[in-house]
What does this fold into?
Amino acid sequence: FAVVGPDAELVEDYDGDDGQMAMHKTRMGKTGDTVSEASHMTLIANVEALEEQFEDMAEQVSEGMQQAGAMGGQPEQLEAMGNMVVAIIENFSRDAHVGLLGLNLDEGGMAVDAAANFREGSELAGYFQHAGEPHGMLSSLPAMPYLFAIAMDYSNPGVRSLIAGMKEMAVDINGGAGLDWFEMAGASEGVSMVLGTPAGGIMGGIFSNMITYTAAKDPGELLDTIRGLYADLDGQVEMGIEYETSYEREAMEINGTPVDAWSMTLSVDPNDANAMEGQMALQSMQMLYPGGRPAGYLVNNGSGVLQTMSKNSELVAKALGAKKDGGLSAEDNLKSVAEQLPSDRTAEVYLRIDQMAAMVGPMMAMMGGPAIDIEEGLPPIGLGVSGTNGGARAHLFVPVQVLEAIKNTAEAMNEDQGGGGDSGRPRF
It folds into this structure.
């Protein structure tokens, strides 16, 4: 073994005797032990010994937000955001025993873990006590080329408590304005979403092929809740933007199922203190929504509510029939990556770099940038988040095919820009 440290006396006195693992296991907890056993290399941080660093971090965040508010406007909102981040840092420093980073490399790919174990009986430990089952919710979404997909199970008490706390923080930031997604979460059991690759590329509206599924014990009640949220939003002003909503119940039928239609018209009062920020937000809408205007469909599919961010009836039709063959959850590449994620996960995310390259590449080439040529059909990068036994864990898995594609693309871009050769490599 090798011992490295800044204190010569400690290094010289280290004798390598075993028998210390029991103490480490106690502090790492079951979550940390799982990460340690699964990793080729593990970094363990003693949170108690880093108390001063966490205090400095919280102070820097608070001061930074205050300065940003003084320079760019919206001081109250930015201060509230700073307070939220500071609260997270302070709570973590107070409740965590250890934080861990783990790295594993094998023939299947690369896995990176970030985890923490919290003191028994602490507030944060109470949030992370239950396993989840998010993967099944992807079965209500259609299998199709996508940029990224996400699923989250928030039916367990710990996650619901976290959501309640996040809602209080959000109210401090925006004063309760805008669409109350937290009320929707309170009436549901979980959510999944897929951002399908836009048929018209990046200029066709990034949300043109996006659909969400919100699971609920009573889908009809959830749909009524969402209808009420759109009604409440009408006439609200947030960040200088005034919302005018339009909602039509059972506007049409798709595959024999009644479908609601919704849309928004957004405008900015030039005399509002946040008019500049509002105008910038409206400009971004041009890239997000087809025609630059938020609109879509809502439908009860029997186990939850489907919602699109565009008037894409074909997408709704595909989603209504998705469960027959397992939908997105049954897609082979996604399934192979899902098997690499923690089995007790509460949330999962999948990112396809091949689809992102296909969407962004042509625009970069038009602007004179380097060519991005990544073969299609690559498995996604996967992320699983779990919280059980008083510990939290985020597990990132990058398949070997993706690592190879990134390496090959970087080398090709380097050659296109006049690089290449062996000049940058070590001489051994």
